[in-house]
Specification:
Low-confidence stretches: none
Number of helices: 12
Oligomer: single chain
Structural class: alpha/beta
Strand order of the largest sheet: 10-9-8-13-11-12
Mean pLDDT: 92
Length: about 290
């Protein structure tokens, strides 16, 4: 039976203790705040980062995990006797982290030639963000503990990401405006009128797919999307920040429109909060299968 190591990065928004108990290795994303470097999930929690966002002089920035760091993690797994590594990475369309993970594979084999014969490294581009790849990483770790093969785990991940649909909204335009995701005038008008966007993320691409006036109205639109697009066997996950009562209201709407309870509710982490702000809410579920390019 193969000994398989599952890895992902901290932008997956899986709490470190949850990952540790699952046997999932979290590699921290570097973050710079007002010129000072930190590691996500090591130097602060998600909740602590919300306070950092509110008090920093400049918008924090994330950096890619470099190839040397990945190479060290691969070598540790090799030294521990693992036969295979499956690494699920942050969206390659938004970060160079995936490319670093790929480069590290050849870096390891160039420096430790014997590893090429004994260790297989699979790198999966989630083309997604946050718990939408963190949750399947946890499931992959569970499958590895149960003795499933690498082929079975990779097939599960491929099916998940070829069906994954993500929808989120921001209850404030402050951080979206600062990040440059929308123009200042658009943000000011949206804020004044109480307009809330519904943003989809499918195959790594962002699109404003709908709008609504008011918080309850935009959450209702998201619940209706889930009712109309979700396949019957799909769980749904929720990602929330600091907007009071939003997660509870969304859970109620999802029960009303889909009859489902949430399979996992998580706090938005640094990589997403920098762009959306901590006053946000998102859901994800599986829809009809698409071909992955």
């Amino acid at each position: 039976m193969s000994k398989i190591k599952i890895m992902t990065d901290s932008a997956s928004d899986i709490p470190p203790e949850t990952a540790r108990k699952a046997g999932l290795e979290l590699i921290p994303i570097p973050i710079t705040v007002d010129g000072v470097g930190y590691l996500e999930g090591v130097d602060f929690t998600s909740e602590e980062f919300y306070n950092i966002l509110l008090n920093c002089k400049e918008l924090p920035t994330t950096s890619q995990i470099n190839a040397v760091t990945y190479c060290e993690k691969y070598h540790e797994a090799y030294a521990q006797g693992f036969d295979a590594i499956i690494l699920i990475s942050l969206n390659s369309l938004a970060s160079q982290t995936y490319q670093s993970a790929v480069a590290a594979k050849e870096l390891l084999f160039a420096n430790v030639p014997k590893a090429r014969e004994k260790l297989t490294i699979h790198i999966v581009d989630s083309k997604s963000f946050s718990v939408t790849y963190g949750y399947p990483a946890l499931e992959a770790a569970k499958m590895a503990r149960e003795g499933r093969s690498a082929e079975m785990i990779l097939a599960y991940l491929d099916d998940w990401f070829s069906r994954l649909e993500v929808y989120f909204t921001a209850f404030s335009f402050e951080f979206i405006k600062r990040s440059g995701r929308v123009g200042v005038c658009t943000a000011m008008v949206g804020e004044a009128l109480g307009i809330r966007p519904v943003v989809s993320i499918i195959d790594g691409k962002f699109e404003i797919c709908d709008k609504a006036r008011g918080n309850s109205a935009v959450m209702k639109k998201m619940a209706l999307l889930a009712r109309n697009r979700r396949i019957e066997s799909s769980p749904y996950l929720m990602l929330s920040g600091t907007q009071p009562g939003a997660a509870e209201e969304m859970a109620g709407l999802m029960r009303q429109f889909t009859g489902l309870e949430c399979s996992g509710s998580y706090k938005v982490g640094s990589a997403v909060a920098i762009n959306s702000g901590p006053k946000m809410l998102g859901i994800c579920f599986l829809g009809e299968k698409r071909s992955r390019s």
